[in-house]
Design a protein that fits this description.
Keywords: Cell membrane, Flavoprotein, FMN, Membrane, Oxidoreductase, Pyrimidine biosynthesis. Substrate binds at residues 71, 116-120, 194, 199, 266-267. This is Dihydroorotate dehydrogenase (quinone). It is an enzyme of class 1 (oxidoreductase). The protein has 385 residues and is α/β, with parallel strands linked by helices. It has one domain (2-384): Aldolase class I (TIM Barrel, Alpha-Beta Barrel), CATH 3.20.20.70. Helices cover 43% and strands 16% of the residues. It contains 15 helices and 13 strands. The strands form three sheets. It has an eight-stranded parallel β-sheet. Helix 8 links the parallel strand 9 (234-238) and strand 10 (261-264). Helix 7 (209-226) packs parallel to helix 8 (244-257) and helix 11 packs across helix 13. The radius of gyration is 19 Å and the shape is globular. Bound molecules: flavin mononucleotide (FMN). The site of flavin mononucleotide has 28 residues, from strand 4, strand 6, strand 11 and helix 12.
């Protein structure tokens, strides 16, 4: 049914308008409690065997929504009702900014891919923190009376992804991240330092260890000061375009700094080597490419990270995941959690449910009792062989 809707409605609309419409429908559903409950009853993971533990929380399933869909934390509860086990909001920057001028989002339907150069359009960390605070107050006042406040506790796991404001010079990048971390850490089940989007000039240079070390240190300190009662898990999100040695360097740094996780990967600036089928006028658009053609490289980066860090750090696999097989492969490669964005556009609202059901079937057919046992199994098998 969704594929017909996609072909007749969304595919004929400008992609960014289609996103706004789809997201408005999701938020509407969340505001009508019987509708939200009906959706959640049908789509949200409830099987015990799907539960996974990460970042001090139990998640209803390993599959979540990647950053960029809900940049301003407006639709967390609607998205959770669609079955995402965690929702990563953002990227949020220190100051509000409009992002790049439209058109800035392109559908490569023949490749099941997207190209975006949104450029971190978002309301800024003060506004997003206020929205998260209001949500948290609503929740502690109603459904979760007596429960604890802040970003932790029951309900969907909420990651908050932060990035640099475009007009802030690179020398002041850390202060911009720190301002966001201070405001947002109280509401975050985990915090992500995004240094890998291709659409903010100079951002990816922050992946170099000499820049990344002080940046992560400063954000860690800011989160600890803002939330003294809880150690907010801190992750870094990396690009698929890093050279292998640079992936290793980030992995070593993550261990050295006691980081909680690494998210691999963001979108790619690569084109030619991806064997794209879409019209060259589309594939030539500037920006980050995501979706199916990214799968192989994202998986490769994840394998490399796991080979280096093993289970010392929680890895999150993202990039080109469409099916349960894709997600299962990523878990065997070393991911405790998996995420996706682009395939949501092509697969529709039943996507997270299909993925979780398929993962439960893969687990049942495997020699592993739990997802935790399956994490990184591809490496152990390779060693044993
Ligand atoms: C339109 C769009 C906007 C995105 N915005 C962000 C962002 O703000 N921050 C971020 O870390 N990643 C962003 N991403 C990257 C995704 O989170 C994800 O890492 C990437 O798309 C690969 O996953 P996928 O192939 O499942 O889409 C964006 C992706 C898309 C398609």
């Amino acid at each position: 049914m969704y594929s017909l809707f996609f072909k007749t409605v969304f595919a004929r609309m400008d992609p960014e308008r289609a996103h706004r419409l789809g997201f408005a429908l999701i938020r509407f559903a969340a505001r009508v409690p019987p509708l939200r409950r009906a959706l959640a009853a049908r789509l949200a993971p409830r099987r015990r065997e799907l539960r996974v533990e990460a970042f001090g929380r139990v998640l209803p399933g390993p599959f979540g929504l990647a950053a960029g869909f809900d940049k301003n934390a407006e639709g967390i509860d609607g998205l959770a009702a669609l079955g995402f086990g965690h929702i990563e909001v953002g990227t949020v920057t220190g100051r509000a900014q409009p992002g790049n001028p439209p058109r800035r989002l392109f559908r490569l339907t023949a490749d099941r891919a997207l190209i975006n150069r949104m450029g971190f359009n978002n309301e800024g960390s003060a506004a997003v923190a206020a929205r998260l605070a209001a949500r948290s107050a609503r929740r502690s006042g109603t459904e979760h009376r007596g429960g604890h406040s802040g970003g932790t506790g029951e309900g969907p796991v909420v990651g908050v992804n932060i990035g640099k404001t475009k007009v802030v010079p690179e020398e002041e990048a850390a202060a911009d991240y720190v301002a966001s971390a201070r405001r947002l850490a109280p509401y975050a089940d985990y915090l992500v330092v995004n240094v890998s989007s291709p659409n903010t000039p100079g951002l990816r240079a922050l992946q170099a260890t000499e820049s990344l070390r002080p940046l992560l240190g400063a954000v860690r300190e800011a989160a600890d000061e803002a939330v003294p009662e809880r150690r907010v898990p801190l992750l870094v999100k990396i690009a698929p375009d890093l050279a292998d040695e640079d992936v290793d360097a980030v992995a070593d740094l993550a261990v050295e700094l006691g980081l909680d996780g690494v998210i691999a990967t963001n979108t790619t600036v690569a084109r030619e080597e991806l064997g794209l089928r879409s019209d060259p006028s589309l594939t030539a658009e500037t920006g980050g490419l995501s979706g199916a053609p990214l799968r192989e490289r994202s998986s490769e980066v994840l394998h490399r990270l796991y080979a280096r860090v093993g289970d010392r750090i929680t890895l999150v696999g993202v990039g080109g995941i469409t099916t349960a097989d894709d997600a299962w492969e990523r878990i065997l490669a070393g991911a405790t959690l998996v995420q996706g964005y682009s395939a949501f556009v092509y697969e529709g609202p039943g996507w997270a449910r299909r993925l979780h059901e398929g993962l439960a079937a893969r687990l049942a057919a495997s020699p592993y009792g739990t997802f935790a046992e399956a994490v990184g199994a591809a490496h152990r098998e390779a060693e044993a062989a």
